[in-house]
User: Fold this.
Amino acid sequence: MPPKDWRKDNPRKYRLKARFSEEEEQIIRDRAAAAGKSRSAYMRDAMLNAEIDPPKPSKSPLDVDELKAVGDQLNELAKSANSGKDLDPDHLNEVLARFRAVLAPMLDKDAS
Assistant:
């Protein structure tokens, strides 16, 4: 615990607001009482000392690598088309089908 004169040099000037349900507020009140702290001290301690897991990536690296590979193929086809070269329609359809197959599961994950 910091020394008593600590607050003089470090006044608490900022107020954070949060909304809680009645049940959540009761849990906080009960836990603060059990810890022998005020609600403010309890919540401050919980927020400043809590370990929070980093967010999980929304896409697996495999999905991203696969999408990049298909994107590279599409880019090459676009370069060929822009330079006036004839495109093989079968190859274009294969690449587009692969692109749709890779993209569809990613879009389904985002929707859920």
Q: What stands out?
A: The longest helix spans residues 89-111. The chain has five helices and no strands.
